[in-house]
Amino acid sequence: MKNILVTGGAGAIGRNLLKALYAQHGSQMVIAGYNRTPLTGLPDGSLSAQVDVYDKERLISVVEEHDLDDGEIYHLAALLSIAAEKDPERARRVNMGGLKNVLDVAREYDMRVFWPSSIAVFGSSAPKHNTPQNAPLDPEFEYGRNKVEGEKLLNQFFDEFEVDGRSVRYPGLLTPGKPGPGTTEYAIEMIYAAVRGEHYASPLRHDTELPMMDMRDATRAALEIMKAPKEDIKVRTSYNLSAMSFTPEELAEEIRKHIPRFKTDYKIDDLKQRVADSWPNSIDDSSARDQWGWNHRYGLPEMTEHMIAEIQKELEILRNANGGVKYG
Ligand SMILES: NC(=O)c1ccc[n+]([C@@H]2O[C@H](COP(=O)([O-])OP(=O)(O)OC[C@H]3O[C@@H](n4cnc5c(N)ncnc54)[C@H](O)[C@@H]3O)[C@@H](O)[C@H]2O)c1
Questions:
Q1: Rounded distance, CA 110 to CA 177, Å?
Q2: Mind listing the pLDDT tens digit for each residue in 251-278?
Q3: Where are the domains of the chain?
Q4: pLDDT over 70 for what percent of the chain?
Q5: Which CATH number fits domain 173-212+243-321: 1.25.40.620, 3.30.70.100, 3.40.190.290, 3.40.50.720?
Q6: What does the pLDDT look like over 4-25, one tens digit per residue?
Q7: CATH for the 4-168 domain, from 3.30.300.30, 3.30.1360.120, 3.20.20.80, 3.40.50.720
Q8: Residue among 6, 13, 54, 166 whose CB has most ligand 1 atoms within 8 A, to mutate
Q9: What pLDDT was estimated at residue 324?
């Protein structure tokens, strides 16, 4: 087994994936890449490196310094949907320029790459329900367009240079922690509000159904697709991936099974609603299931119960650290 670099290690997926990689490989083989703020709370003796993915020279020096040739890159550094919409130029630089640099380096140093795409690749031409693997890709927003270009690049590097890049189209991912500038993050905010005993004003309409996934399933998917035999990976753009779909109203109902007094209302955010309306309601991921054995473990009830328990623990720790003062 060779060394592994994770870019965007401080992000939502990065934090969770690093834990899973440390559990599998120990901390000595995994290099946690961060951009501006150094990572804290890493295991003793673990390795980290500052790496702006737009800076190819820096990327190369990290790969050489940490003996990453013939190893793996989990390339997670990116700008999420709402951030990309607000700063399209920066989004193109990070989301497409960063991926191009990673693929160039992977080609030169013979590295296997994991890079997540998103359900944001789909637009109005794709069927909304059970969107198939090969549905047309005509996203209306910058983030989705970046992901479509990224998928093409991954495919091209495989065809032309045999770079073994593997990818899944993640739905909205749910994990405790500060919600990022995305569209599906409302679900994380909602659960935090419920646990804090606050009411929540949803930025999306009550009936906006979106595909979602528990982060525990998402990190396992990344590890499993990277471990799959090369000949099993037949889609060299990106695999549809699915676990559950729900609306804000359905999530609120599920939360009320644990926190009966929780109340919601709706204060629609125009941009988030338009982005959400352009995405599928549910995804057909049978290619991933058939070809490399993908199988989700967590649905809405399991995810909600887990998130509530984890957030309760987190807020309890903060409350204690704040000398008993109510957090938030
Ligand atoms: N979170 C989701 O629901 C979701 C869904 C579908 C796909 N994805 C994809 O998964 C990947 C990771 O998403 P996430 O949720 O962890 O995002 P995140 O916003 O939580 O983390 C992204 C990280 O990238 C870092 N970053 C930004 N610009 C950088 C640069 N130039 N160089 C190095 N690092 C930089 C940020 O500091 C941040 O730590 C992204 O490609 C994203 O598009 C996420």
A1: 34
A2: 999 999 999 999 999 999 999 999 999 9
A3: 4-168, 173-212+243-321
A4: 98
A5: 3.40.50.720
A6: 999 999 999 999 999 999 999 9
A7: 3.40.50.720
A8: 13
A9: 53
CA dist 210 and 280 (Å) reads 7
The pLDDT value recorded for residue 257 is 98
Ranges of beta strands (E only) in the chain are: 4-7, 30-34, 47-50, 72-75, 112-114, 117-118, 165-166, 168-170, 172-174, 200-202, 210-214, 239-240, 244-246, 264-266
What is the pTM assigned to this prediction?
0.95
Mutate to test the pocket of ligand 1, among 34, 35, 52, 80 (most ligand atoms within 8 A of CB): 80
Is 143 a known active-site residue? yes
- Residue 323 banded pLDDT, cuts 50, 70, 90: low
> How far is the centre of ligand 1, averaged over its atoms, from the C-alpha of 78 (Å)?
4
Q: How far is 17 from 6, CA to CA, in rounded Å?
A: 8
Q: How far apart are CA 17 and CA 311, in angstroms?
A: 19
Ligand 1 centre from 124 Cα, in Å? 25
Q: How far is the CA of 300 from the centre of ligand 1 (A)?
A: 24
pLDDT of residue 227: 97
Q: Which residues pair with 212 in a beta bridge?
A: 172, 244
